[in-house]
Give the backbone structure.
Amino acid sequence: MKKFIAIIAAIAMIATMSVSVFAAAEIDAIGETLEGTVVANYEEADEGARVPVVVVDAAWSGLTFTYTVATEAWNSTDLVWEDSEGTWAGAASVEVTNRSSKAVNASVSYEAGVVAAEDVTCDEDVDIAVGTARDGETPAAPITKTLKVTVKANADAITETQNGATAGTVKLTIADVA
């Protein structure tokens, strides 16, 4: 009984399949030509079918942190040498300009090198809107935001042997607005 049902189902499937037939023509003499008709179709674009385009410019600056070693300073009031603390200077920043057809979210993060991750602060992520212009309207200006990465004042010192080493890596991430 199962074979019989399987055969009937197979015949029904074959009967419903469409088969494309291509007519072949041949040229059997020099100087003969064949013609084929080319069809052109016109379709209206769906206004809602635009695919968002993301174009973000990033300009980095100040990607150097400098540690100044602690020294002794003369206290002219108490007439004694006093220890001073080492200090950090510098800040990395990235200027992010959104030229996209949609708003984006920009965030910076820091991965440790010789400067520990807990010694570095990054600006919070930021949504960067965009104004879009339709045909005939004045184009909107791109929107720019700056995100900063700084070393905390009380960060651990680096050593002379770490001079010029990679302090860490700053990463810019662009994402959809939540």
